[in-house]
């Protein structure tokens, strides 16, 4: 018998919307649980048949979410055609560097009016494209039928139903709202915005700052160092994203500051863990071997620095992370928050006067976020 789904708070209940989740890693499986607990009819596609069988029959994913019971209603298959059959929304959670080849396999089975949602936080190494741009390039769908989701989303915590929030972004507010309706339940709340650029780059860039935080943590530096790098890291993230057309407010929201805090401070973060191993003296090759899942921050460093140079954006934190990865900088010498072009005192913000007016909007966004927290998450959809 189908388990009774948990009703979303403050939103109309959506019963039985057919959705597919492509990718059965920790985040893909967790998001499938979110959707199923919100009342959707969910099928997960797992590349490995044995993993699909475990999810389907035992309602477990012992490789990625040990100890977590999955919803009885959740189904899984190793066949893409079965996973995608009748799906009105398709959530994609595969390694960013394999997205393009996976989409080629998806295309013949994709419904004509399906919405495609990226759960990934990376850029394609070869092209520098964001995940939504790769989706738009490969699949014959309109940009308004593409959405992205980002935020402080450590998979294991959410799988254990610890309350959190995310932001759904699409160039179409209607699309973002449709996805958010499904991706909301008693422990997970989705807000919406239309700043796809800022939402995606926030999710990418925080990974790089988290690697830096892991490095200094592994070296043994304390909270002052980490707080300085996190704060200056947010400046780099904002400067970069705004240079590419993002709204500065987005970087102070869930996809920017929220994700940055969660990823930098938690041992559950793959990027933080990988950085910590580097700081402890492990070689890059050894770290890659130890990590069971993809460390998106490693793959994104090169493309992000190329994109930054194209816009004349300085990113000393990301640059020093690259040097540590290349073996040209000793981890104990990393101090990107001290890196400047001269010894002259500099302003804390690097944006020019025309862009700096975003500061008021940043503070306003933070106040709204604190107000939402004080009121238990109640309020209008928006981020």
TrEMBL record:
Residues 346-355 have a biased composition (Basic and acidic residues). Residues 19-175 form the Glycerol-3-phosphate dehydrogenase NAD-dependent N-terminal domain. Its EC number is 1.1.1.94. It is an enzyme of class 1 (oxidoreductase). Pathway: Membrane lipid metabolism; glycerophospholipid metabolism. It holds the Pfam family NAD_Gly3P_dh_N. Sn-glycerol 3-phosphate binds at residues 121, 151, 206, 259, 269-271. NADPH binds at residues 26-27, 47-48, 64, 121, 155, 270, 296. GO terms for molecular function: glycerol-3-phosphate dehydrogenase [NAD(P)+] activity. It catalyses: sn-glycerol 3-phosphate + NADP(+) = dihydroxyacetone phosphate + NADPH + H(+); sn-glycerol 3-phosphate + NAD(+) = dihydroxyacetone phosphate + NADH + H(+). It comes from the Bacteria. Keywords: Cytoplasm, Lipid biosynthesis, Lipid metabolism, NAD, NADP, Nucleotide-binding, Oxidoreductase, Phospholipid biosynthesis, Phospholipid metabolism. Residues 329-358 are annotated as: Disordered. The active site is at 206 (proton acceptor). It is found in: Cytoplasm. Residues 195-334 form the Glycerol-3-phosphate dehydrogenase NAD-dependent C-terminal domain. Its main location: cytoplasm. Catalyzes the reduction of the glycolytic intermediate dihydroxyacetone phosphate (DHAP) to sn-glycerol 3-phosphate (G3P), the key precursor for phospholipid synthesis. PANTHER family: GLYCEROL-3-PHOSPHATE DEHYDROGENASE (PTHR11728), GLYCEROL-3-PHOSPHATE DEHYDROGENASE [NAD(+)] 2, CHLOROPLASTIC (PTHR11728:SF1). Belongs to the NAD-dependent glycerol-3-phosphate dehydrogenase family. This is Glycerol-3-phosphate dehydrogenase [NAD(P)+]. The lineage of its organism: Bacteria, Bacillati, Actinomycetota, Actinomycetes, Micrococcales.
